[in-house]
Specification:
There is one protein chain. This protein is 64% helix and 0% strand. With 225 residues, the protein is mostly helical. The chain is extended. The protein has one domain.
Amino acid sequence: MLRSRPRSSSVFVTVTFVAVGLVVQGASAQPPRNPAPSRPASAAARPPAGGKSTMPPSKYWMVPGLAPLSMESVQREIGLSAEQKQQLKALSDGYQAAVQKAVAPLRELPPEEQQKQSVELREQIGQMARGTQRKGEAILTPQQLRTIQTISFEMAVGQMLANPAAQEKLGLDAEQRQKLMSVYERAGEKMQKLQRETAGQLLDGLSEEQIAKLRQQVELQQKQQ
């Protein structure tokens, strides 16, 4: 049975997503049309309408600045050893627990007090993130770190080039911009197809009653946006 959760304060949600967002490298620009493919699950996501912001499950690695490590395919590509995986998993779990512990008290405060403490809390979480990133980089070999940095760049390209301001700074001409638009259009079609296929697989595990309740929740969320 699906249950609604009490709405969290906007400040609490903002600070929590700042913590999650520290994992992701690069700007998150929104294109005017045909959005670029979405980034991995380690990227911050919008909370459900009326829901409470939560950190990702502990099964997912959250190492700030090293977001590609959350993907098993990348772990295989760079040849992580069993010992490295264990160390990175422990580092990720420790970071998530520290962020949750730092953010949790904020939820109990009135909005005015939350606003006062949010700036200090962001800085505190930022320090945690930078420290965790340095420890994560130390676990990797130089070659592994270079590969992760290359993958991070590749993952950021799609969103950065979708930003007209970035296109302007790069001095892209009309032909280059048109080529970018064609790439985004094809990527958008592939993403929509993948989303529908994924939805079908997810719905296969639900009963008709659950699907009906889910449809009501989706429609409610869409109205609130």
